Amino acid sequence: MADIQRDNSPDTTAVPHAVHRGDYQPPTFLVDAVALHFELDPAATLVRSRLVMRRNPLARESAGERAAPLRLDGESLTLRSLRLDGEALTADLYRLEPDGALVIPEVPDHFVLEVEVEIAPAANTELSGLYTSGGNYYTQCEAEGFRRITFFPDRPDVMARFTTTIVADRASCPILLSNGNPTEAGDLPGELPGELPGELAAGRHRAVWVDPHPKPCYLFALVAGDLVAVRGRFTTRSGREVALAIWVRRGDEDRCGHAMRSLKESMRWDEEVFGLEYDLDVFNIAALSDFNMGAMENKGLNVFNTKYVLARPDTATDADYQGIETVIAHEYFHNWTGNRVTCRDWFQLSLKEGLTVFRDQEFSADMGSRAVKRLRDVRGLRAAQFPEDAGPMAHPVRPDSYIEIDNFYTPTVYQKGAEVVRMMHTLIGAPAFRKGMDLYFERHDNQAVTIEDFAQAMQDASGIDLSHFKLWYAQAGTPEVTVSDSYDPSTRRYVLTLRQSTPPTPGQPVKRPMPIPVAMGLLDGEGRELPLRLAGENTTPAPGTRVLVLEEAEQRFEFEAVDAPPVPSLLRGYSAPVKLLGMPPERLRFLAAHDTDPFVRWESGQQYATGVMLDLVARHQRDGEAALAAPPDAGLAEAMAATLAGAAADPAFAAEALLLPGENFVADQMPVADPAAIHAVREALRAGLAARLAAPLRDAYDGLADDGPYRIDGASIGRRALRNACLGYLALGPGGVALARAQFDGGRNMTDVLAALAVLADTDSPERTEALAAFHARWRDDPLVLDKWFAIQAMARRPGRAAPDDLADIRALYTHPDFDIRNPNRVRSLAGSFAAGNPDRFHDAGGAGYRFLADVVIALDPLNGQTAARMVTPLGAWRRQAEPRAALMREALARILAVPGLSRGTYEKVSKALA
Ligand code: TRP
Ligand code: ZN
Fold first, then answer.
1. Residue range 736-762, pLDDT digits in tens
2. Burial of 443: CB neighbours in 10 Å, binned 0-12, 13-18, 19+
3. What local confidence, expressed as pLDDT, does residue 10 receive?
4. What's the chain's average pLDDT?
5. Domain map of the chain by residue range?
6. Which residues belong to the active site?
7. From 3.40.640.10, 1.10.390.10, 1.10.540.10, 2.40.50.140, which CATH number describes the 341-474 domain?
């Protein structure tokens, strides 16, 4: 047949429209099997597909109506040929829609469709679909990238069995990977099971992969190129031998050990904790530098950002090591929560993401310090999710509509979603939760399901009614819980009154009360746990933590037989993602020093410090610089001194407790933020504490000197964290710069070197210039380390230096020869770190910070809309700023919105921010 050459690049003039959750319809057609055949070429890759399809008996079609047409999603594909049941389709028998879809009006109930398209991986800067990076081929299909590879019903509830044949140049592409298990590579064309007939040209070779598990197309993956493997083996509980491999570029083999260890630990943990085993003969991980997110859970072939694979003590920090452990686990855990049981539609995204984040959090808690892991997760939730819940993009864990689904891979869907799963775990208890998981897999293996199905399994397994609880999935916004209490010594009764309210969010002006699990205890004046007997109970539980459920707008909890006036310890372990209000400072100080729950101890210290900082900000606004001259709050200084004195018991925890709440967190506690005052106050307080505690800080620093070999166990990480927390303070005192310089020069691992460099970057000293130059010279050819060099400077704020000078330096990094706007890691290192990690400069009153971010978004959007849209977020928070900042932020947003042909994602973020 004659070649058809029709390009279906998306129509950029159309106004983007929203997709609504309530409009869900089952797919009209199902795909039972799909055979894919790739002829790889950077400029023109041919993709042949053979789809075995049938009409879905469940699809709604009113009687008498004509059978619905076949519609296959497609985007930026050049259609080469089309056959239905072996017959070539002439142009009058199909059409290409403006959005790129292929429509065939007349098809039988069962048929085989053969399609050939051409795509251009080397020209694909979006990093969605099939693209090249460093001369190798990679795919990214979630959420809707498969339609950029071939025509297909690109929705997660169409699950098909995939066979993939890859043909490529043997010399430049020796490694050919896809999902499932490899079958033998064939010598003759068209002789392998499921393989499409074709010719094998000279110098080319091929491999065939068969994935026995039905899956949605967003889990498809192909990786091909000149890669080397670091190999491992794992024997599952039932005796299956799994060949593990991590595929990297030559030269990176010595940086895969931690990822491989983390993978094996994850596989073991999922067997032990959830009884879940791996289900293929191979598990491959491929790592690349050009990637829109952290990693992707494609069946049997996870694809990773190098940031979450590669680590060596001299190149990666402890935080990097911990990130690798968590992300490797996360993607591995998706094999069951996401792949074996997947999402019916993208509104259910948290079904897999919230649950899988909960699972990776629990895994990391079991691998290291549970307490430190928990408070870090909470800090992350507050840094990203709370602002989202309070801003223009606020949405429920299960959103109701979207314009671009890529915009909904959010802290709300991931982190708050994990908190919702955690609350269920708290409410029904660990054993019932495990039973619920078993039931979920028993009912839904190989299905695409909803959040309702998950909650139903938990409810049926536990016998606890979760119907009211499910409101957590539907209602956006962060609930506020207010505490008041009273104690009557004559009756020995203690009454705790809790009130809840949730602020309005876009589209949800009025909120209902939700069931909030409040894990709590009562402490006497010496910090001992009191028994917790609620009025009407006739037995007294052993002293310790119990979980109250606040379900109404206001509820009284009356405790009997309370022998002493108690201090309530609330939200132990952070049992619900809410804001707790109404705790007076004396109680916070008491809890910070005495509570038995480590989370509440840390939290109370942070809340106390926040109160001190807010007071100082108010005084600074009233009295100017003079407000900063006073010595630091005595309570805070004493608490810090106590932390240092007791640090040896748990250095990692002490390091966390020594850190003052960040500037963004403090800003979030104010009705209207004042970034400049917050920065001034925080720095003054840090300097005051450094002066007051100089001796114990120095003792701690010296006592923690790094002498042994580098180890990445929890104890060693904790010691480094504490030592570097001390350095952060010591740097502000006399001799601080020299101390940091010495650590920079002598540091034997990236954690210590980078901590010292960060300290130097915040000074205006020759040491700063020298250290940055030395670091660049040493690491200029190492992308992940060079990212750190960009990030440190983007977050730097030098005392006494004029804002325009700092901003000009940061802007100059954008034109640095090593800056590459096509690489998302580099963009995040510069622009992302700047906007999130340098609040005082980002919110420069002249607007230069906002203009810089807008310039980056405008330059990036035509190349990579997904990453550009993500960069818009900080500008959306303009309602929380005073003039002139708010107007300048709106101006930056309006300038982006005026750009013709904006990507759907950036359009959605910007238009919602301005609405
Ligand atoms: N599902 C992936 C995860 O959570 C994340 C993901 C979604 C992603 N969309 C992506 C990764 C696009 C890379 C690119 O693990
Ligand atoms: Zn995930």
1. 999 999 999 999 999 999 999 999 999
2. middle
3. 53
4. 96
5. 1-225, 341-474, 480-576, 780-915
6. 331
7. 1.10.390.10
Cα 825 to chain centroid, rounded: 14
pLDDT of 6 above 80: no
Please give the single-letter amino acid code of residue 479.
P
User: Is CATH 1.10.8.420 correct for 780-915?
Assistant: no
pLDDT of residue 748: 94
Nearest CA to ligand 1 atom 3: 296
Query: Is any ligand 1 atom within 6 A of the Cβ of residue 163?
Result: no
Of the pLDDT bands very low, low, confident and very high (cuts 50, 70, 90), residue 5 is very low
Distance 329 CA to ligand 1 centre (A): 14
Q: Give the whole-angstrom CA distance, residue 283 versus residue 299.
A: 9
Give the CATH H-level superfamily of domain 480-576: Aminopeptidase N, middle-beta domain (2.60.40.1840)
Distance 354 CA to ligand 1 centre (A): 13
Q: What is the pLDDT of residue 62?
A: 55
pTM (2 d.p.): 0.97
Of the chain, the percentage scoring pLDDT greater than 90 comes to 94
Task: Tell me, using a 6 A CB cutoff, whether residue 329 lines ligand 1.
Answer: no
Q: What per-residue confidence (pLDDT) applies to 3?
A: 38
Cα–Cα–Cα angle for 246, 346, 333, nearest 5°? 35
- The reply to whether ligand 1 has any atom less than 6 angstroms from the CB of 219 is no
Going from the Cα of 596 to the center of ligand 2, the distance in angstroms, rounded, reads 33
Best CA proximity match to 548, nearest among 520, 524, 585, 572: 520
pLDDT at 65: 61
Cα atoms in the 13 Å half-sphere on the side-chain side of 885 = 22
Do the domains 480-576 and 1-225 match in fold? yes
Q: Which CATH superfamily is domain 1-225 in?
A: tricorn interacting facor f3 domain (2.60.40.1730)
